[in-house]
Write a structure and sequence with these properties.
single chain, transmembrane, 150 residues, mainly alpha, transmembrane helix
Length: 150
């Protein structure tokens, strides 16, 4: 067996999902949310700060779940999973990248739905952003379980 049990995977995924929701909506500052898509270094720095606090939130949440439930994972696998998740989150949150991908795969009309100023969480861009993140939470959870507790 190369990974943890399905139950351990479920715990890891749920912990990462909860941390994502908290980190992406409560921990992220307004400056990060408004600035992370900006051009140049100001946007890059805002996005990096957001991803750093988001990843810290995920590490703390996952650590608490593993501690309370007395589960063990390889620290290297968890680090790799969180690194993949952080990189994918940064890539998507620069905004132009995910919008360009949406255009390329025929989702351009959907990505432009809604008023990002009046209701930023009610737009097509937001829905595609969140589904991208959740897909990579799944990948991160799988990676984190490699060589983990049975």
């Amino acid at each position: 067996m190369i990974g943890a049990s399905p139950a351990v995977f479920a715990v890891v995924f749920v912990a990462l999902y909860v941390a994502h929701e908290v980190g992406d909506h409560w921990v992220q500052t307004s400056g990060q949310a408004l600035g992370k898509g900006a051009a140049g270094w100001p946007g890059r720095w805002a996005c990096m700060r957001h991803v750093a606090t988001l990843t810290a939130t995920k590490l703390i949440t996952l650590g608490l779940a593993l501690m309370v439930l007395d589960l063990a994972l390889s620290p290297w696998a968890v680090a790799a999973g969180l690194a993949v998740d952080a990189a994918s989150h940064y890539w998507a949150d620069r905004r132009v990248t995910l919008a360009a991908l949406a255009e390329r795969v025929g989702k351009g009309e959907f990505v432009r739905l809604g008023d990002g100023v009046a209701a930023p969480a009610g737009t097509g861009a937001y829905a595609l952003d969140q589904s991208w993140h959740i897909a990579f939470l799944f990948v991160a959870a799988l990676i984190s379980c490699i060589g983990g507790a049975a």
